[in-house]
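Whiteboard transcription, Tuesday session. T.W. wrote the structure tokens on the left side:
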């Protein structure tokens, strides 16, 4: 699952943060949490990809 992540995918981290993949990298994934905040998350801490709801 982690290898298939691409820009625009929504993910949830083991810490409960939900964000959108901005750039998958080798060891980390850049995740946008909101318009002002982008973080780098270790691939080990991505819990799962979540499906976008119909209202997004």
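and on the right, the sequence the group agreed on:
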């Amino acid at each position: 699952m982690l290898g298939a992540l691409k820009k625009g995918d929504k993910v949830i981290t083991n810490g409960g943060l939900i964000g959108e993949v901005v750039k998958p990298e080798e060891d980390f994934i850049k995740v946008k949490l909101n318009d002002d905040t982008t973080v780098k998350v270790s691939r080990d801490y991505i819990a799962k990809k979540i499906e976008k709801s119909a209202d997004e």
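Someone added at the bottom: The mean pLDDT is 89.
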